[in-house]
Amino acid sequence: MTTQEEKALRAKEKPEFSQTLEPTKPGPAFVPAVDIFETDSGITLIADMPGVKAEDLDIDLREDVLTLSGAVLPPEEPAEQEVFREYNTGTYFRQFSLSEVIDQEKIDAQLRDGILRLTLPKMEKATPRKIKVSAG
């Protein structure tokens, strides 16, 4: 195997969360990779949270701060013994400050195959629109 092939097969490391506070949960905390897209009608946030199940995902919104946190539990069954592991378990954590143009009542979240998709619609008054001019 060439060096280039080895690089292509290397697992992507999850960036670990640098904690400035004392942790209350054991284990590492990771920062999920996020893509954010904006349209005239809203913002879409896509977060990579592999291994997180919907029941282990918490999305909290208070005082204009959106907090994503989710736990990745070990995949093994009770009878299995660990031989080799590249898949780290721990907790995902990331926060976002929302602007006043987001309609916080209409935020929608979907989790599928470890990808969290948040739809954050803009308020009606923030949506660009054309004003029709009447002659008269």
Automatic annotation (TrEMBL):
<dbReference type="InterPro" id="IPR002068">
    <property type="entry name" value="A-crystallin/Hsp20_dom"/>
</dbReference>
<feature type="compositionally biased region" description="Basic and acidic residues">
    <location>
        <begin position="1"/>
        <end position="16"/>
    </location>
</feature>
<comment type="similarity">
    <text>Belongs to the small heat shock protein (HSP20) family.</text>
</comment>
<dbReference type="InterPro" id="IPR031107">
    <property type="entry name" value="Small_HSP"/>
</dbReference>
<dbReference type="InterPro" id="IPR008978">
    <property type="entry name" value="HSP20-like_chaperone"/>
</dbReference>
<feature type="domain" description="SHSP">
    <location>
        <begin position="25"/>
        <end position="136"/>
    </location>
</feature>
<protein>
    <submittedName>
        <fullName>Heat-shock protein Hsp20</fullName>
    </submittedName>
</protein>
<feature type="region of interest" description="Disordered">
    <location>
        <begin position="1"/>
        <end position="26"/>
    </location>
</feature>
<dbReference type="Pfam" id="PF00011">
    <property type="entry name" value="HSP20"/>
</dbReference>
